[in-house]
Structures are given as C-alpha cells and as structure tokens.
Amino acid sequence: MIEVKALVFSYEKGRKALKGLDFEVEKGEIFGFLGPNGSGKSTTQKILTGIQGGYQGEVRLMGKAPDKTDRKVFYQEIGVLFEFPYLYTNLSALDNLKFFSSFYSRERRRDIMPLLEHLEFKMDYLKKPVASYSKGMRQRVSMARALLGNPDILFLDEPTSGLDPSGAVLFREIIEEERKKGTTVFLTTHNMLDADLLCDRVAFLAEGSIAALDTPESLKERYSRKTVQVVYRKDGERVQRDFTTEELGLSFPEDIVSIHSQEPTLEEVFLKTTGRGLTG
Description:
Elements: E1 2-12, E2 15-25, E3 30-34, H1 41-48, E4 56-61, H2 71-77, E5 78-81, H3 93-101, H4 112-118, H5 135-147, E6 153-157, H6 165-180, E7 184-188, H7 192-198, E8 201-206, E9 209-214, H8 216-222, E10 227-234, E11 237-244, H9 245-250, E12 256-261, H10 266-274
Parallel strand pairs: 3-7, 3-8, 5-6, 6-7
Antiparallel strand pairs: 1-2, 1-4, 8-9, 10-11, 10-12
Helix pairs in contact: 3-5
C-alpha cells in the first residue's frame, strides 16, 4: 500500500531533512513511525499525504505518487488525523463533520451520528462550538473526521493525545477495528505504549534516517539483557535479584513469589538505536 524508496528531502540547500528513507507498508498493517522532534517524521507524513512535493526518490501509495495524482481521487482514499485538531472552532462538531463529509462520495462517507456515538462523544456538546470543547473532545471529533470517508489508508498523528486512559483504550480498539477491515494505518507517535500495543512493525527515525525497523517483539528481543528478575522470600524477608539464564540453570531459589523477564521496553530500544529521547 505504501512504498518509499531512497526518499531524500531538503528544506535548505545542503541540509537534508530526509536522507534516503526506504520502507514499505503492507495492506492492513499498522506501521509505527517514531522519532523525536526534528527527526523528519512530520516531513515524511506531509510527503506521503501529498501536502509536500519537491522530494527525491520514489513514493507510492496504492501504486500512485501522492503529489502527482488526481488530488480529488487521492483524498477520497486516505484519512488523516493531525496532531493538532484541524477543526473550525466557531462551528459545532456536527457542522464541522457535515462540512467535511461533503468532500466524499456518497458511497464512501459514513453516517456522522453512529460514528460519534462509537467514539463516545458527549452528545450534549453536539451543537456547541468546538472552542468550548476539551482537548479529548476535540480529538474525538478529529478522529471522526479522519474516518468519515472510510479510508483505505489512515494516517494518525498522536491519536491518543489529550485522552484519558479509558479514551486511549477506546481509540486503540477503534484502530484495531479499522485494521480488521483491511485499512492500512500509518501511526506517528511519541507514545511507546501505543506503538507497542498496536503496531505490527515500527520504524525509528533519527536525524532523517531510519535507525531501526522491525516488529516491537523482535526489537525488544534483540536488545534484551538476557536476565530475569526473581522475587523470593529468604528468612521471612522479601528479596529481589536479577539472574542470568546461566545462573538460573545452576541454582534456583526456593519459595519463588514471581519471575519477571527483563526485556527492554520499546522506548529503551529507541534510546539505544537513536541516542535520543522522543521528546528531545
């Protein structure tokens, strides 16, 4: 569904924002694109969604170059949730979504009310201006906007930003539902939990280059410390100790309370591969 080969882009002469990116995203895959501010992820997403041209290399979505195809057709096929909600704040949720739904063909567009209900939007705000909404409420309307056209490819930029824990769980469930329908999801996020729970594969971007690309499980296994943390009781006291697998094969403490594997988190792998934190 998405093919990127030798993608290079420069905002200024001699300063490359993207330095030869190569990756592919399969149909129905949730692909995580992770990187700190200034790493090039926003530029990549602008190119993929046809907002930014002037790049070198090859970019194809559904076999078409996004900046060289019929825009009216292309934008019927994708949905975009921006990091900062792109809504008319003087209009209500209902008026915003009625306006945006007019861009889609009748065959594609979804019914607004069932979509808002599924997103657990508070219906007493339905006709109030967006300016009066909390960030979480705006995020629900923005997600509804992204899903209105029943997209083949869904671009999500920080989808759970501003949501409480239950709202974040709901959004993850909705993203999984989209994948089960065959929708391809390109997820840009700083939230390692979202990436770990949702993504089939993740790419770590650092200074315009891909530092690592694999499944979350494979990346964590690759950087595992190969130790387990054992909590046990000795002389009535609770004791915690890290063991190597070799040590566990030789001796094992009695009265084990619990054992926790010590594989790294996805965020730890990101720091090791890029040398930077996501908020840097």
